[in-house]
Protein: 23S rRNA (Uracil-5-)-methyltransferase RumA
Organism: Owenweeksia hongkongensis
Amino acid sequence: MSQKRPFSRNQRVELKIDDMAFEGKGISRVETEDGKYIVFVPNTIPGQVVSAKIIKAKNSYAEAKLLKVITPSPLEVEMPYHPIPGAPYITLPVEKQHEYKKNTTIELFRRIGKIENAADLLDEFMSSPDDFHYRNKMEYSFSAVGYDRNTDEEFDGFTLGFKKRGQWLSVEQLKKDSGLFDPQIENALPAISDYFTSRGFSAWHGLQHTGFCRFLTVKRSFSEDGLLINLVTTSSELDRFDKDEFVAFMKDLLGDRLLGLVHTLNDDIGDRPLTTDGKQNVIYGKGTITEEICGLQFRISLESFFQTNPASAERLYQKALNYVFETEPGSRPVVMDLFSGTGTITQLLAQRSTDKEIIGVELVPQAVADAKKTAKANGFDNLKFFAADVGKFLLEHPEYTDKIDTIVMDPPRAGIAPKTLRKVIRLNAKRMVYVSCNPATQARDMVTLAEAGYKLKKYSLVDQFPHTAHIESVALFER
Ligand SMILES: C[S@@+](CC[C@H](N)C(=O)[O-])C[C@H]1O[C@@H](n2cnc3c(N)ncnc32)[C@H](O)[C@@H]1O
Protein backbone atom coordinates (compact mmCIF):
# COMPACT_ATOMS: atom_id res chain seq x y z
CA MET A 1 0.00 0.00 0.00
CA SER A 2 1.45 3.36 -0.92
CA GLN A 3 1.24 6.32 1.37
CA LYS A 4 2.19 9.97 1.37
CA ARG A 5 5.84 10.61 2.12
CA PRO A 6 6.06 12.29 5.50
CA PHE A 7 9.59 13.57 4.78
CA SER A 8 11.43 15.11 1.88
CA ARG A 9 15.04 14.88 0.81
CA ASN A 10 17.55 16.92 2.85
CA GLN A 11 15.03 17.45 5.65
CA ARG A 12 16.52 17.29 9.16
CA VAL A 13 14.52 15.14 11.49
CA GLU A 14 14.60 13.84 15.04
CA LEU A 15 14.00 10.08 15.22
CA LYS A 16 13.71 7.41 17.87
CA ILE A 17 15.47 4.19 16.76
CA ASP A 18 13.24 1.15 17.43
CA ASP A 19 15.04 -1.80 15.87
CA MET A 20 17.97 -2.88 13.71
CA ALA A 21 18.06 -4.25 10.16
CA PHE A 22 20.86 -6.09 8.30
CA GLU A 23 24.15 -4.15 8.06
CA GLY A 24 23.46 -2.40 11.34
CA LYS A 25 20.90 -0.06 9.90
CA GLY A 26 18.79 1.40 12.70
CA ILE A 27 15.06 1.34 12.00
CA SER A 28 12.79 4.15 13.09
CA ARG A 29 9.04 3.57 12.76
CA VAL A 30 7.36 6.96 12.47
CA GLU A 31 3.60 7.26 13.13
CA THR A 32 1.77 8.86 10.19
CA GLU A 33 -1.92 9.23 9.22
CA ASP A 34 -1.42 6.23 6.90
CA GLY A 35 0.21 4.05 9.51
CA LYS A 36 3.88 3.43 10.29
CA TYR A 37 6.53 4.84 7.97
CA ILE A 38 10.02 3.35 8.15
CA VAL A 39 13.24 5.33 8.14
CA PHE A 40 16.61 3.50 8.02
CA VAL A 41 19.51 5.24 9.77
CA PRO A 42 22.88 3.43 9.53
CA ASN A 43 25.29 3.58 12.49
CA THR A 44 22.56 3.91 15.12
CA ILE A 45 21.49 1.69 18.01
CA PRO A 46 17.95 0.75 19.06
CA GLY A 47 16.80 3.04 21.87
CA GLN A 48 18.77 6.08 20.68
CA VAL A 49 17.11 9.37 19.81
CA VAL A 50 19.03 10.90 16.92
CA SER A 51 19.13 13.87 14.66
CA ALA A 52 19.36 12.76 11.03
CA LYS A 53 19.17 14.10 7.50
CA ILE A 54 16.88 12.41 4.97
CA ILE A 55 18.90 11.38 1.91
CA LYS A 56 16.28 9.28 0.10
CA ALA A 57 12.49 9.50 0.49
CA LYS A 58 10.27 6.86 -1.13
CA ASN A 59 6.58 6.20 -0.66
CA SER A 60 7.15 3.20 1.57
CA TYR A 61 10.38 4.09 3.36
CA ALA A 62 13.21 6.63 3.68
CA GLU A 63 16.94 6.50 4.27
CA ALA A 64 18.67 9.02 6.49
CA LYS A 65 22.20 9.91 7.52
CA LEU A 66 23.06 10.16 11.19
CA LEU A 67 23.98 13.70 12.22
CA LYS A 68 24.11 13.39 16.00
CA VAL A 69 22.99 11.12 18.81
CA ILE A 70 20.74 13.26 21.02
CA THR A 71 19.96 10.67 23.70
CA PRO A 72 21.93 7.44 24.09
CA SER A 73 20.17 4.09 24.21
CA PRO A 74 19.55 2.37 27.56
CA LEU A 75 21.37 -0.60 25.96
CA GLU A 76 24.64 1.34 25.68
CA VAL A 77 27.52 1.08 28.13
CA GLU A 78 30.46 3.41 28.89
CA MET A 79 33.66 2.55 27.03
CA PRO A 80 37.17 3.62 27.99
CA TYR A 81 38.08 4.16 24.32
CA HIS A 82 38.18 7.13 21.96
CA PRO A 83 35.01 6.81 19.83
CA ILE A 84 35.75 6.49 16.11
CA PRO A 85 33.57 6.27 12.97
CA GLY A 86 34.93 2.78 12.27
CA ALA A 87 33.36 1.33 15.42
CA PRO A 88 29.81 2.74 15.55
CA TYR A 89 28.42 -0.03 17.80
CA ILE A 90 31.24 -0.22 20.36
CA THR A 91 28.99 1.02 23.17
CA LEU A 92 26.54 -1.84 22.54
CA PRO A 93 27.57 -4.94 24.52
CA VAL A 94 29.07 -7.56 22.19
CA GLU A 95 26.40 -10.17 23.09
CA LYS A 96 23.75 -7.71 21.91
CA GLN A 97 25.72 -7.06 18.70
CA HIS A 98 25.80 -10.83 18.11
CA GLU A 99 22.06 -11.10 18.61
CA TYR A 100 21.38 -8.39 16.02
CA LYS A 101 23.92 -9.76 13.53
CA LYS A 102 22.55 -13.28 13.84
CA ASN A 103 18.86 -12.38 13.61
CA THR A 104 19.22 -9.92 10.74
CA THR A 105 21.34 -12.38 8.69
CA ILE A 106 18.83 -15.21 9.23
CA GLU A 107 16.07 -12.86 8.10
CA LEU A 108 18.13 -11.85 5.04
CA PHE A 109 18.70 -15.49 4.01
CA ARG A 110 14.99 -16.14 4.47
CA ARG A 111 13.80 -13.10 2.54
CA ILE A 112 16.44 -12.69 -0.22
CA GLY A 113 17.97 -16.18 -0.32
CA LYS A 114 14.50 -17.83 -0.15
CA ILE A 115 15.73 -20.21 2.56
CA GLU A 116 12.57 -20.76 4.59
CA ASN A 117 14.34 -22.75 7.32
CA ALA A 118 17.35 -20.37 7.56
CA ALA A 119 17.17 -20.37 11.37
CA ASP A 120 17.40 -24.19 11.49
CA LEU A 121 20.31 -24.35 9.04
CA LEU A 122 22.53 -22.06 11.13
CA ASP A 123 25.28 -24.38 12.31
CA GLU A 124 27.27 -22.01 14.55
CA PHE A 125 27.60 -18.32 15.36
CA MET A 126 31.28 -17.75 16.11
CA SER A 127 32.53 -14.73 18.00
CA SER A 128 35.93 -13.18 17.36
CA PRO A 129 38.57 -14.67 19.72
CA ASP A 130 39.24 -11.07 20.78
CA ASP A 131 36.43 -8.54 20.90
CA PHE A 132 38.86 -5.64 21.30
CA HIS A 133 42.26 -4.78 19.76
CA TYR A 134 41.77 -7.43 17.09
CA ARG A 135 42.84 -5.49 13.98
CA ASN A 136 46.25 -5.88 12.37
CA LYS A 137 46.28 -2.67 10.34
CA MET A 138 45.10 0.90 10.58
CA GLU A 139 45.41 4.00 8.46
CA TYR A 140 45.55 7.42 10.11
CA SER A 141 45.31 10.71 8.22
CA PHE A 142 47.03 14.00 8.91
CA SER A 143 44.94 17.06 8.14
CA ALA A 144 45.23 20.84 8.34
CA VAL A 145 41.47 20.89 9.01
CA GLY A 146 40.49 19.51 12.39
CA TYR A 147 37.16 18.26 13.68
CA ASP A 148 35.92 18.62 17.25
CA ARG A 149 33.32 15.99 18.09
CA ASN A 150 32.11 17.85 21.22
CA THR A 151 31.22 21.07 19.43
CA ASP A 152 30.60 19.29 16.08
CA GLU A 153 32.73 22.01 14.45
CA GLU A 154 35.67 22.12 12.10
CA PHE A 155 38.74 24.26 12.79
CA ASP A 156 42.11 25.11 11.24
CA GLY A 157 44.79 23.08 12.96
CA PHE A 158 47.17 20.10 12.69
CA THR A 159 45.44 16.77 13.46
CA LEU A 160 46.29 13.08 13.18
CA GLY A 161 43.54 10.49 13.44
CA PHE A 162 40.40 9.48 11.57
CA LYS A 163 38.32 11.48 9.13
CA LYS A 164 34.96 12.71 10.30
CA ARG A 165 32.28 10.20 9.33
CA GLY A 166 31.12 10.48 5.74
CA GLN A 167 33.61 13.11 4.53
CA TRP A 168 37.22 13.33 3.44
CA LEU A 169 38.56 16.69 4.62
CA SER A 170 38.52 17.14 8.39
CA VAL A 171 40.21 14.80 10.85
CA GLU A 172 39.60 14.33 14.56
CA GLN A 173 42.81 14.03 16.59
CA LEU A 174 42.89 10.54 18.08
CA LYS A 175 43.72 11.14 21.71
CA LYS A 176 43.89 7.55 22.91
CA ASP A 177 43.23 3.89 22.12
CA SER A 178 40.13 3.29 19.96
CA GLY A 179 39.68 -0.26 21.27
CA LEU A 180 40.13 -1.77 17.79
CA PHE A 181 43.85 -1.69 17.04
CA ASP A 182 47.17 -1.55 18.88
CA PRO A 183 46.85 0.47 22.13
CA GLN A 184 50.54 1.40 22.25
CA ILE A 185 50.60 3.15 18.87
CA GLU A 186 47.17 4.74 19.31
CA ASN A 187 48.05 6.16 22.73
CA ALA A 188 51.20 7.56 21.11
CA LEU A 189 49.43 9.44 18.28
CA PRO A 190 49.20 12.76 20.21
CA ALA A 191 52.99 12.59 20.80
CA ILE A 192 53.56 11.94 17.06
CA SER A 193 51.39 14.97 16.25
CA ASP A 194 53.43 17.05 18.71
CA TYR A 195 56.66 15.83 17.13
CA PHE A 196 55.71 17.38 13.80
CA THR A 197 54.01 20.55 15.07
CA SER A 198 56.89 21.38 17.44
CA ARG A 199 59.25 21.30 14.44
CA GLY A 200 56.97 23.51 12.36
CA PHE A 201 55.81 20.88 9.83
CA SER A 202 52.43 21.36 8.20
CA ALA A 203 49.66 18.81 7.60
CA TRP A 204 48.00 18.08 4.26
CA HIS A 205 45.12 20.34 3.28
CA GLY A 206 42.76 18.31 1.13
CA LEU A 207 41.27 21.31 -0.66
CA GLN A 208 44.40 23.39 -1.16
CA HIS A 209 46.64 20.36 -1.87
CA THR A 210 49.39 21.77 0.33
CA GLY A 211 51.24 20.51 3.41
CA PHE A 212 53.86 17.90 4.34
CA CYS A 213 52.40 15.15 6.58
CA ARG A 214 49.76 13.00 4.87
CA PHE A 215 49.26 9.51 6.34
CA LEU A 216 50.58 7.18 8.97
CA THR A 217 49.72 3.59 8.09
CA VAL A 218 50.50 0.85 10.55
CA LYS A 219 50.62 -2.92 10.12
CA ARG A 220 50.90 -5.16 13.10
CA SER A 221 52.12 -8.74 13.42
CA PHE A 222 50.60 -10.65 16.32
CA SER A 223 53.09 -13.48 16.02
CA GLU A 224 56.10 -11.11 16.04
CA ASP A 225 54.35 -8.72 18.48
CA GLY A 226 55.54 -5.71 16.51
CA LEU A 227 54.64 -2.88 14.15
CA LEU A 228 55.58 -1.85 10.63
CA ILE A 229 54.96 1.87 10.16
CA ASN A 230 54.72 3.86 6.96
CA LEU A 231 54.97 7.64 7.16
CA VAL A 232 53.60 9.24 4.01
CA THR A 233 54.60 12.82 3.25
CA THR A 234 54.86 15.14 0.29
CA SER A 235 58.28 16.43 -0.73
CA SER A 236 57.34 20.04 0.12
CA GLU A 237 59.23 20.33 3.44
CA LEU A 238 61.57 17.40 2.89
CA ASP A 239 64.76 19.43 3.24
CA ARG A 240 63.90 20.06 6.92
CA PHE A 241 62.89 16.46 7.69
CA ASP A 242 65.59 14.66 9.68
CA LYS A 243 64.93 10.95 9.12
CA ASP A 244 67.44 9.80 11.73
CA GLU A 245 65.89 12.00 14.37
CA PHE A 246 62.41 10.68 13.50
CA VAL A 247 63.67 7.08 13.69
CA ALA A 248 65.19 7.77 17.12
CA PHE A 249 61.92 9.35 18.29
CA MET A 250 59.82 6.38 17.11
CA LYS A 251 62.24 3.87 18.65
CA ASP A 252 61.97 5.75 21.90
CA LEU A 253 58.15 5.58 21.69
CA LEU A 254 57.80 1.92 20.69
CA GLY A 255 61.04 0.23 21.74
CA ASP A 256 61.59 -3.26 20.33
CA ARG A 257 58.04 -3.39 19.00
CA LEU A 258 59.10 -1.14 16.12
CA LEU A 259 59.95 -3.73 13.47
CA GLY A 260 60.23 -1.38 10.51
CA LEU A 261 59.78 2.25 9.52
CA VAL A 262 59.12 3.22 5.92
CA HIS A 263 59.01 6.72 4.46
CA THR A 264 56.84 7.14 1.38
CA LEU A 265 56.91 10.30 -0.72
CA ASN A 266 53.54 11.05 -2.25
CA ASP A 267 52.95 14.30 -4.13
CA ASP A 268 49.80 13.02 -5.87
CA ILE A 269 46.68 15.03 -5.18
CA GLY A 270 44.66 11.79 -4.91
CA ASP A 271 43.76 10.85 -1.35
CA ARG A 272 45.64 7.53 -1.11
CA PRO A 273 48.69 6.64 0.96
CA LEU A 274 50.48 4.46 -1.61
CA THR A 275 51.99 5.92 -4.73
CA THR A 276 52.57 4.12 -7.96
CA ASP A 277 55.98 5.63 -8.67
CA GLY A 278 57.87 3.71 -6.00
CA LYS A 279 59.35 6.56 -3.93
CA GLN A 280 59.48 4.42 -0.82
CA ASN A 281 62.43 3.95 1.54
CA VAL A 282 62.84 1.65 4.50
CA ILE A 283 64.45 4.06 6.99
CA TYR A 284 64.61 1.62 9.89
CA GLY A 285 64.39 -2.18 10.31
CA LYS A 286 62.54 -4.22 7.70
CA GLY A 287 59.88 -3.46 5.09
CA THR A 288 57.76 -6.58 5.66
CA ILE A 289 56.39 -8.49 8.63
CA THR A 290 55.26 -12.10 8.98
CA GLU A 291 52.08 -13.51 10.44
CA GLU A 292 50.96 -17.02 11.22
CA ILE A 293 47.56 -18.53 10.40
CA CYS A 294 46.77 -22.19 11.15
CA GLY A 295 50.51 -22.91 11.45
CA LEU A 296 51.34 -21.35 8.06
CA GLN A 297 53.68 -18.37 7.70
CA PHE A 298 52.67 -15.36 5.60
CA ARG A 299 54.94 -12.51 4.61
CA ILE A 300 53.06 -9.21 4.61
CA SER A 301 54.29 -6.11 2.83
CA LEU A 302 52.71 -2.67 3.02
CA GLU A 303 50.73 -3.35 -0.16
CA SER A 304 49.68 -6.95 0.28
CA PHE A 305 46.20 -7.96 1.31
CA PHE A 306 45.94 -9.94 4.50
CA GLN A 307 42.98 -10.83 6.71
CA THR A 308 42.45 -7.92 9.12
CA ASN A 309 41.53 -10.07 12.12
CA PRO A 310 43.87 -13.08 11.77
CA ALA A 311 42.71 -14.90 14.93
CA SER A 312 39.11 -14.79 13.77
CA ALA A 313 40.04 -15.60 10.15
CA GLU A 314 41.64 -18.76 11.52
CA ARG A 315 38.26 -19.81 12.95
CA LEU A 316 36.49 -18.95 9.70
CA TYR A 317 38.98 -20.98 7.64
CA GLN A 318 38.81 -23.96 10.01
CA LYS A 319 35.05 -23.97 9.63
CA ALA A 320 35.31 -23.79 5.82
CA LEU A 321 37.83 -26.66 5.85
CA ASN A 322 35.60 -28.74 8.12
CA TYR A 323 32.80 -28.29 5.59
CA VAL A 324 35.13 -29.42 2.80
CA PHE A 325 36.46 -32.50 4.57
CA GLU A 326 33.64 -33.68 6.83
CA THR A 327 31.92 -35.63 4.06
CA GLU A 328 33.47 -38.43 2.10
CA PRO A 329 36.27 -36.73 0.08
CA GLY A 330 35.28 -38.33 -3.23
CA SER A 331 37.46 -39.69 -5.97
CA ARG A 332 37.56 -36.77 -8.39
CA PRO A 333 41.12 -35.45 -8.80
CA VAL A 334 40.78 -31.65 -8.46
CA VAL A 335 39.93 -29.16 -5.67
CA MET A 336 39.41 -25.53 -6.68
CA ASP A 337 39.78 -22.36 -4.63
CA LEU A 338 38.14 -19.57 -6.60
CA PHE A 339 38.93 -15.91 -5.73
CA SER A 340 41.98 -17.25 -3.94
CA GLY A 341 43.64 -13.91 -3.00
CA THR A 342 46.96 -14.55 -1.31
CA GLY A 343 46.27 -18.28 -1.32
CA THR A 344 45.48 -18.81 2.35
CA ILE A 345 42.59 -21.22 1.81
CA THR A 346 44.43 -22.89 -1.07
CA GLN A 347 47.35 -23.74 1.22
CA LEU A 348 45.09 -24.93 4.01
CA LEU A 349 43.40 -27.25 1.51
CA ALA A 350 46.84 -28.55 0.52
CA GLN A 351 47.67 -29.24 4.19
CA ARG A 352 44.80 -31.71 4.39
CA SER A 353 44.48 -33.00 0.86
CA THR A 354 47.80 -34.29 -0.38
CA ASP A 355 46.54 -36.57 -3.17
CA LYS A 356 44.54 -33.98 -5.18
CA GLU A 357 45.50 -31.30 -7.63
CA ILE A 358 44.69 -27.99 -5.93
CA ILE A 359 44.04 -24.92 -8.04
CA GLY A 360 43.73 -21.29 -6.96
CA VAL A 361 42.31 -18.64 -9.29
CA GLU A 362 42.72 -14.95 -8.49
CA LEU A 363 42.45 -11.75 -10.53
CA VAL A 364 45.22 -9.64 -8.96
CA PRO A 365 48.69 -10.74 -10.22
CA GLN A 366 50.45 -9.33 -7.12
CA ALA A 367 48.26 -11.46 -4.84
CA VAL A 368 49.04 -14.53 -6.99
CA ALA A 369 52.77 -13.75 -6.79
CA ASP A 370 52.47 -13.51 -2.98
CA ALA A 371 50.50 -16.77 -2.92
CA LYS A 372 53.17 -18.60 -4.94
CA LYS A 373 55.93 -17.25 -2.69
CA THR A 374 54.26 -18.24 0.58
CA ALA A 375 53.19 -21.65 -0.79
CA LYS A 376 56.82 -22.34 -1.67
CA ALA A 377 58.05 -21.12 1.72
CA ASN A 378 55.46 -23.31 3.46
CA GLY A 379 56.66 -26.33 1.45
CA PHE A 380 53.65 -27.00 -0.83
CA ASP A 381 54.30 -28.30 -4.30
CA ASN A 382 50.89 -29.70 -5.29
CA LEU A 383 49.42 -26.22 -5.86
CA LYS A 384 48.71 -24.34 -9.07
CA PHE A 385 47.84 -20.64 -9.04
CA PHE A 386 46.36 -18.80 -12.02
CA ALA A 387 46.19 -15.01 -12.28
CA ALA A 388 42.88 -14.63 -14.12
CA ASP A 389 39.29 -13.54 -13.93
CA VAL A 390 37.35 -16.57 -12.64
CA GLY A 391 34.74 -16.39 -15.44
CA LYS A 392 37.38 -16.14 -18.15
CA PHE A 393 39.48 -18.90 -16.60
CA LEU A 394 36.55 -21.34 -16.51
CA LEU A 395 35.64 -20.50 -20.10
CA GLU A 396 39.19 -21.28 -21.20
CA HIS A 397 39.47 -24.48 -19.13
CA PRO A 398 36.46 -26.69 -19.87
CA GLU A 399 38.64 -29.70 -19.01
CA TYR A 400 37.84 -29.26 -15.29
CA THR A 401 34.14 -30.06 -15.80
CA ASP A 402 33.17 -33.23 -13.87
CA LYS A 403 36.68 -33.36 -12.31
CA ILE A 404 35.86 -31.64 -9.02
CA ASP A 405 34.21 -32.88 -5.84
CA THR A 406 34.40 -29.60 -3.94
CA ILE A 407 34.78 -25.96 -4.96
CA VAL A 408 35.70 -23.38 -2.35
CA MET A 409 34.95 -19.77 -3.24
CA ASP A 410 35.58 -16.56 -1.34
CA PRO A 411 34.47 -13.72 -3.63
CA PRO A 412 34.71 -9.99 -2.87
CA ARG A 413 31.84 -8.02 -1.30
CA ALA A 414 30.05 -7.66 -4.63
CA GLY A 415 29.58 -11.44 -4.76
CA ILE A 416 29.92 -13.54 -7.90
CA ALA A 417 28.84 -12.02 -11.23
CA PRO A 418 25.76 -13.95 -12.50
CA LYS A 419 27.55 -15.06 -15.70
CA THR A 420 30.55 -16.29 -13.69
CA LEU A 421 28.33 -18.15 -11.24
CA ARG A 422 26.69 -19.97 -14.15
CA LYS A 423 30.16 -21.05 -15.33
CA VAL A 424 31.03 -22.25 -11.83
CA ILE A 425 27.79 -24.27 -11.81
CA ARG A 426 28.72 -25.84 -15.16
CA LEU A 427 31.81 -27.40 -13.52
CA ASN A 428 29.30 -29.80 -12.02
CA ALA A 429 31.01 -30.11 -8.62
CA LYS A 430 29.28 -32.16 -5.94
CA ARG A 431 29.76 -29.57 -3.21
CA MET A 432 30.46 -25.88 -2.85
CA VAL A 433 31.79 -24.13 0.21
CA TYR A 434 31.00 -20.44 -0.21
CA VAL A 435 32.80 -18.01 2.11
CA SER A 436 31.37 -14.50 2.03
CA CYS A 437 32.17 -11.15 3.60
CA ASN A 438 28.79 -9.88 2.44
CA PRO A 439 25.82 -12.16 3.18
CA ALA A 440 23.58 -9.83 1.13
CA THR A 441 25.27 -10.88 -2.12
CA GLN A 442 25.62 -14.45 -0.86
CA ALA A 443 21.84 -14.53 -0.30
CA ARG A 444 21.30 -13.39 -3.90
CA ASP A 445 23.65 -16.12 -5.18
CA MET A 446 21.83 -18.74 -3.06
CA VAL A 447 18.80 -18.35 -5.30
CA THR A 448 20.83 -19.11 -8.47
CA LEU A 449 22.53 -22.05 -6.75
CA ALA A 450 19.17 -23.47 -5.64
CA GLU A 451 17.81 -23.19 -9.19
CA ALA A 452 20.84 -25.22 -10.34
CA GLY A 453 20.13 -27.92 -7.76
CA TYR A 454 22.60 -26.86 -5.06
CA LYS A 455 20.85 -27.10 -1.73
CA LEU A 456 22.05 -25.14 1.29
CA LYS A 457 22.96 -27.81 3.85
CA LYS A 458 24.15 -25.49 6.63
CA TYR A 459 26.07 -22.28 7.30
CA SER A 460 28.02 -20.56 10.05
CA LEU A 461 28.40 -16.87 10.83
CA VAL A 462 31.64 -15.37 12.07
CA ASP A 463 31.89 -12.01 13.82
CA GLN A 464 35.21 -11.00 12.25
CA PHE A 465 34.73 -7.30 12.97
CA PRO A 466 33.13 -6.62 16.36
CA HIS A 467 31.67 -3.10 16.80
CA THR A 468 31.04 -2.74 13.04
CA ALA A 469 28.07 -3.84 10.95
CA HIS A 470 30.10 -6.58 9.19
CA ILE A 471 29.49 -10.30 9.46
CA GLU A 472 31.14 -13.16 7.52
CA SER A 473 29.34 -16.27 6.46
CA VAL A 474 30.51 -19.72 5.35
CA ALA A 475 27.93 -21.92 3.69
CA LEU A 476 27.92 -25.52 2.47
CA PHE A 477 25.89 -26.39 -0.65
CA GLU A 478 25.38 -29.89 -2.01
CA ARG A 479 23.84 -31.20 -5.19
C1 LIG B 1 37.60 -11.94 -0.10
S1 LIG B 1 39.03 -11.94 -1.07
C2 LIG B 1 39.57 -13.58 -0.98
C3 LIG B 1 40.67 -13.73 -0.01
C4 LIG B 1 41.36 -15.06 -0.04
N1 LIG B 1 40.50 -16.16 0.33
C5 LIG B 1 42.55 -14.97 0.88
O1 LIG B 1 42.51 -15.58 1.94
O2 LIG B 1 43.51 -14.26 0.55
C6 LIG B 1 38.35 -11.90 -2.71
C7 LIG B 1 39.39 -11.96 -3.80
O3 LIG B 1 38.73 -12.05 -5.07
C8 LIG B 1 39.54 -11.40 -6.03
N2 LIG B 1 38.68 -11.14 -7.21
C9 LIG B 1 37.75 -10.19 -7.39
N3 LIG B 1 37.12 -10.33 -8.55
C10 LIG B 1 37.68 -11.42 -9.16
C11 LIG B 1 37.45 -12.07 -10.39
N4 LIG B 1 36.52 -11.64 -11.26
N5 LIG B 1 38.19 -13.15 -10.69
C12 LIG B 1 39.15 -13.59 -9.82
N6 LIG B 1 39.39 -13.01 -8.63
C13 LIG B 1 38.67 -11.94 -8.29
C14 LIG B 1 40.04 -10.18 -5.29
O4 LIG B 1 41.19 -9.65 -5.87
C15 LIG B 1 40.29 -10.76 -3.89
O5 LIG B 1 41.63 -11.18 -3.74
Q: What stands out?
A: The CA atoms of residues 290 and 321 lie 23 Å apart. The first helix runs from residue 94 to 111. The first strand starts at residue 12 and ends at 16.
